[in-house]
From TrEMBL, chains A, B:
InterPro entries according to UniProt: AAA+_ATPase, ABC_ATPase_HisP-typ, ABC_transporter-like_ATP-bd, ABC_transporter-like_CS, MetN_ABC_transporter-like, P-loop_NTPase
Annotated Gene Ontology cellular component terms: plasma membrane
Protein's membrane topology: Peripheral membrane protein
ABC transporter domain span: 7-241
Pfam families per the UniProt record, alphabetical: ABC_tran
Keywords: Amino-acid transport, ATP-binding, Nucleotide-binding, Transport
GO terms, molecular function: ABC-type amino acid transporter activity; ATP binding; ATP hydrolysis activity
Stated family: Belongs to the ABC transporter superfamily.
Location in the cell: Cell inner membrane
Organism: Marinomonas rhizomae
PANTHER family: AMINO ACID IMPORT ATP-BINDING PROTEIN (PTHR43166), PHOSPHONATES IMPORT ATP-BINDING PROTEIN PHNC (PTHR43166:SF4)
The protein's name in its UniProt record: Amino acid ABC transporter ATP-binding protein (PAAT family)
Keyword presence, Nucleotide-binding: yes
TrEMBL record, chain C:
One GO process term, biological-process aspect: amino acid transport
Gene source species: Marinomonas rhizomae
InterPro entries: AA_ABC_transptr_permease_3TM, ArtM/GltK/GlnP/TcyL/YhdX-like, MetI-like, MetI-like_sf
Keyword entries, A-Z: Amino-acid transport, Cell membrane, Membrane, Transmembrane, Transmembrane helix, Transport
Similarity remark: Belongs to the binding-protein-dependent transport system permease family. HisMQ subfamily.
Gene3D superfamilies, alphabetized: MetI-like
Cellular localization per UniProt: Cell inner membrane; Cell membrane
Coiled coil: none
Protein name: General L-amino acid transport system permease protein
Sample GO molecular function, one term: transmembrane transporter activity
CDD domains: TM_PBP2
Primary location recorded for the protein, binned into one broad class: membrane
Membrane topology category: Multi-pass membrane protein
Automatic annotation (TrEMBL), chain D:
One GO BP: transmembrane transport
Keyword Membrane tagged: yes
Chain segments annotated as transmembrane: 12-32, 84-107, 128-149, 169-190, 202-225, 237-257, 309-330, 342-365
Membrane topology: Multi-pass membrane protein
Keyword field contains Transmembrane: yes
CC annotations in GO: plasma membrane
Listed name of the protein: General L-amino acid transport system permease protein
Compartments where located: Cell membrane
Amino acid sequence: MSKQTVVQLDRVNKWYGKYHALRDIDLAVAKGETIVICGPSGSGKSTLIRCLNNLEQHDEGGIKICDITISENVKDIEKIRRHTGMVFQHFNLFPHMTVLDNCTFGLRHVLGMPVSQANEVARDLLNKVKIGDQEQKYPGQLSGGQQQRVAIARALTMSPDIMLFDEPTSALDPEMISEVLEIMRSLSKDGMTMICVTHEMGFAKEFADRIVFMEAGSVIEISPPEEFFVKPKTERAKVFLDQILAH
Amino acid sequence: MSKQTVVQLDRVNKWYGKYHALRDIDLAVAKGETIVICGPSGSGKSTLIRCLNNLEQHDEGGIKICDITISENVKDIEKIRRHTGMVFQHFNLFPHMTVLDNCTFGLRHVLGMPVSQANEVARDLLNKVKIGDQEQKYPGQLSGGQQQRVAIARALTMSPDIMLFDEPTSALDPEMISEVLEIMRSLSKDGMTMICVTHEMGFAKEFADRIVFMEAGSVIEISPPEEFFVKPKTERAKVFLDQILAH
Amino acid sequence: MNDLNFTGKPIEAREPAASQLSINRVVEWVKRNLFNSWFDSIITLLIILLLGTVLPKALDWLFFSATFSGAGRADCSPDAACWIPIRQYIDYYIYGPFPESEQWRVNSAFAVGLFAFPLLFTQRIPQKIVIGYILFLPVLLWVLLKGGFIFEDISTSALGGLTLTFFLGIIAMCLSLPVSILLALGRQTKLPILRWICVGYIELVRCIPVITFLFMASLVLQLFLPGGVSIDVLFRVLFVLIFVSAVYKAEIIRGAIQAVPKGQIEASYAMGCGYWKTMAYVVMPQALRNSVPALISNFIGLFKETTLVMILGLLEVMGAVKATFNNAEWLGLHAEGPIVVSAFFFVACFSIAQYGAYLERRIRRTKH
Amino acid sequence: MQSFFYNRKVRDALIQLIFLACVCYGAMYLVMNAATNMSNAGLTSGFDFLFQRAGYDISYSLVHYDPKTSTHLMAWVAGMVNTLAFAVVAILFTTVLSLLLAVMRLSHNFLLSSVSLCVVEYMRNVPILVHITVWYVFSLTLPSVRQAFNLGDVSYLSNRGLSLPSVVWNYSLWPSIVLIVLWLGLCFLMQKKVPSKGRRRLLMLFTTVILILSASLMFSPVVSISVPQLVGFNFKYGWTLPPEFIMLIVAVSTYSASHGSEVIRGSILAVSKGQMEAGLALGVKRNIVMNRVIIPQALHSIIPPMTSIYINVLKAAALGSVVGFMDIMGTMGGSSLNITGQAIECILIVMVSYGFLNLILAAVMGRFNNAMQLKGR
Amino acid sequence: ADKLEEVKARGVMKCGIHPGKAGFSTPDTKGNWTGLDVELCKAVAAAVFGDASKIEFITMNSRNRLTALVTDEIDMLARSTTFTATRDGLNGVDVTTPWFYDGQALMVKKELGVNSIEELDGATICTYPGTTSEKNINDYFESRGLSYKALIVEGSAESTAAYLANRCDAVTNDASALAADRQGMPDPSANVILPERISKEPLGAYVKQGNDDWRQVVTWTAMALIEAEGLGVTQDNVDEKLKSTKPDVIRLLGTEGNLGKNFGLDNQWAYNAIKAVGNYGEIFERNLGEGSSLNFERGLNALYTNGGLLYAYPFR
Ligand SMILES: Nc1ncnc2c1ncn2[C@@H]1O[C@H](COP(=O)(O)OP(=O)(O)OP(=O)(O)O)[C@@H](O)[C@H]1O
Ligand SMILES: Nc1ncnc2c1ncn2[C@@H]1O[C@H](COP(=O)(O)OP(=O)(O)OP(=O)(O)O)[C@@H](O)[C@H]1O
Ligand SMILES: [Mg+2]
Ligand SMILES: [Mg+2]
């Protein structure tokens, strides 16, 4: 890989109490790549992605994001979080703020941007996710798909280098999934570095540069989609794919 | 339709306050038919299916199940509920009872069957849904797929004439959907009258006798699957199919 | 756990590397938890200063200089606590004027009542048995403390001190439970008149201080009964405690009923079960189990509330303590009584509360 | 015919009718009993006694009450006003203390959170009646009048209470009207000119303070301040809060705050973890997320449980008579009852008074709650 | 039926007492009640049943004590309740005979140098709610054109504490209660009970109105104990006195005549009462006088022959 590496994991391990949740994870992501992480439930996908911006602390090994190593240093972690944007399964919009305020929250409180300027930035992004006309509504007044799009816009306001998605569509009704995937597609096309945990194999097939398959806390396969879907290297991945594509 | 009609809806209307949730629904289901109801979110699918066993009361029109007309009469409604079995999206197993007790609940408390006899009936059905070995576990100890199979077995214990399914697979992980669909297939093959709300178009294609497409509280299309999937009569159904089959 | 990687390489699960205790870690802990910022440091120092000045004095007064044994007032030291009367009267505080030869009955009543707590703990025992025990408990306590059947009948005025507190607390708790279930169901029913009567009752009782009800019971309740019928003051007080605390329990149980997913009720209806069967077999077992922690803290409230009967002249534990300090010999000791009473209630209620919190944690754990 | 009784509506109606009939019959029965019993015992009922001379003193009253002339009705009024004054102050303190204890408890400072834990656990596990007694005994250890703590020469704290300087209004209508008109005008102007809600509030507060200050300077004879001074046995002038009042407030508000702080802490912890994570993931500092995201959301779920705590505070006023604070229970339900012997009437009045006050309180909190609800939920 | 029949049929007498008043009713370490009021109850029980233990003590607060009589919760009330015309006339209860002559007084600190109530203009005075003392103090100050500030505290312990801490300048109560309280103070001699008695406080037992037989029993039992003191009959010598030849004594003890029968009791009723608790003088000494730590003077409560007010009607 000739391109600049923006995420670098080096033998990362993590325990919950005695439970070994991540086992010797090695992974390097280049700028502009789209990575899809998949695997059975409980295999540690969420844990991995949350370690990347230190929402969970890993116990062993090194994680380097945009040349900053994750450590105990609070300043470093704040920096890393500014370099990454995260979208959650359950949106986690702030229910007591309007859509616009949700999107300007980071700008105002991290970058100390004046309100008018922040509003401008936010409106731009809201238009990009096709929701510009809803800016004065509260999250509770929007559908799930709309909320998730706002969440993406909110993450984008901080102009992150890397976007992390943790099952962004799994809490959505089937019809709304496509509108969120639409946005993710366009992000991917624009060259954003993306790491997505998702079960949407259609999206993975089309846009992933590489697919990371996890099982019981380990990464057991990393392949480009052409290879992964046609002839997965491991038996486990095959079983998984069969099941997930069966219906 | 030469066969006996077991479900008969005649200009059924329902309002939630001012909101018109069901509009002039006409529908007749013959014995042994498998009907799939689909349509966008909020179109009234659940409302319709819940009116069939009076979990919701309709406001206008007539509903007749196995020759009993739904009315205010408490005894009639109890009879109708004994003729129908219902499977819910969120399983709704009783968490404080074992799997076996869940299945004997209706037998014991509605039919007043002695425990040993009820257990026998329940074991039979649990074996049929391939879960006979779990009978002493509590629902919380089972996976979602297993729970849904128990829920189906529970509904079958009352030997209903008609099975109602309200999105039985949509709360399941992708891996578990297939095992539940498997059971539904075998039921359908055995000649059970089934009315299913589901987004599983694979199942619909293969097993539905007719597909009912709903939109904003009205039934706008009833066609056999061959026709529905190939050239739907309405534009709305087409858009819906496009979206749902896209990813 | 040793999973086999399908490529053939085994996936080893390891234990986290053990970290050992060291001076460094202690220093780090102190730094992080006490002197995190300058503001933190100031607060830490202020608290240390405060505790440093107050604690030694208080301990000295309470224990080190205090008089624990002696024959009478003359042995007390004037500027420290005097615990002699407490020691002299301890039996009275516990048993009240209960006849001495029958005190084993009080002891077994305590044992029987306290046994209800571990019963809530075990999950093995079917709920039917637990509920049966709780409903049977008042009868048992009644027979033990008040008499009847095989035991000699004891006058209600012989109940006092801790025995009375316990008697009132446990019986009111157990008997208000069924009342509160009916109230909670009444408040949720679709039948409007029934609902409004229940709502009205609940809201009204919540708005009015218990002691006015107690006064009502003690002063005017008799007037509302047919002539010649008179009810013992103890039962009237019990009656008030039951019907007042049922209101608070009803709110707890209503919450727990609402927390039972609606789907549970629908599933039961769909199978052809009626309202009462659904409530009895599906909703209530779940609601009651989940409301145990809240009911325990309600019990603590009720237990504390029994002190109010003192205002009516009934000598529960606080009243008993007060009465003894009116004895000519001990007149003028003001602080010891309240201290002993608060220590007693603190120990009792705190342990029950911890137990309730533990049960709550366990319920939450099993839910996930 | 049978199907008639199986009809859902018929059944519902029948059940309700039977229930209603039972309730009415029960009520009638009790009232009839009371009537016969009272006539047998030669007791008279009625509320005439309210207009008779009360003939007892009330230790602390905010309204004018003179034992020589005042009636029982007046005693009730004095009790009501005392109850109200107590409730307002105690509710205020309860709120502040609850917040303080909750924040302390959530602090990362180990000592601070342990202190809060100990205080809260002690407070809530001991009956309120004991607290009241303990605090009362404690208040008596304060120095006597002559050795009173001097708080900056304007206030004094002794076992006779807290003496504060008071503001004496020499009522004059015109300045007040001018002030109100000015204020209303300003509000109206600001409503139009200043768009941001937060800034508008701040401006409003600011101008109000300025207005009041300038008004009190301009019309200086309207307002004067009276400072307490030691004369004879007692402090004169100013405004003296008796220790019964203060200690009842302290006891009740610390007791309630121990419950309140658990409510607040609980609702802060109940805000989903995802909210904090979402804030952190944006790179925002933890305490900003706490103040801007978590606490505002917690406030939404605090109000209903806080309402019942407030109601309990108000009800606790009835315990004041134990230490000599005369609220309605002390005046109407205590001395008046004893002197007139009209037990049913007096207790009824007390119950209705508390019910009335609490229903108002609940209604106000209900409106507040509605205003605070999240949109679209 | 009359209360007397009812009590006899029940086999136990219910007596309402104070929940804690030094010298009058306090529990001992075993929970048995002792005190001047308590012994009156015991005497009545002994007179009725011949057994002083057939009694049940029920503690009463000042608000519900009279109601309890009216509603038959108790048979007699011996709770230091003042005899007043209002109570006797209105509330459905009857007075019996005074058992303890008291008077409301005020206690102040010696250091104040106050010698008379007249000097207390403007003072704060501690009192109890729902008692006659609350109204008395008001009437007394009002009639003299003096002003005062009342501090009404429910419990006597709290009230004493308030006084000790100078929360109030004076505390008012029945003189006996004041004396008892003073006894419990760290330095009793630093306090003086002012000489004026602002009210007459004859304390004694109440019974429910309209039960004349019962009222007679309670009244005459109390008188019998007073008479016994006058006749020198004591708990110890009462058995000997049965053989006495003095007509007063044998009539009292029931060896001669039909006094008991006329009251509906056993003829030995007075004997039983004296045997159970002793005569008035003994009771007084035991609970209030030198036998207790209170050390009261007999004062008004001496026999009329010794300059007091105690005067039993003749037992003829
Ligand atoms: N806070 C925690 N404490 C203890 N164990 C945890 C915690 N969070 C996760 N785990 C465990 O770690 C394992 C990996 O969890 P993770 O959430 O990363 O799985 P996942 O692959 O994201 O699964 P899913 O597809 O269900 O979201 C699971 O077995 C889970 O039970
Ligand atoms: N109890 C209710 N009160 C008011 N409106 C309701 C209620 N239940 C459903 N609705 C409304 O009725 C409409 C139809 O609801 P229904 O649940 O039948 O839709 P659905 O087709 O099952 O949708 P989904 O696919 O999301 O389950 C929706 O707009 C819904 O908001
Ligand atoms: Mg996950
Ligand atoms: Mg639905």
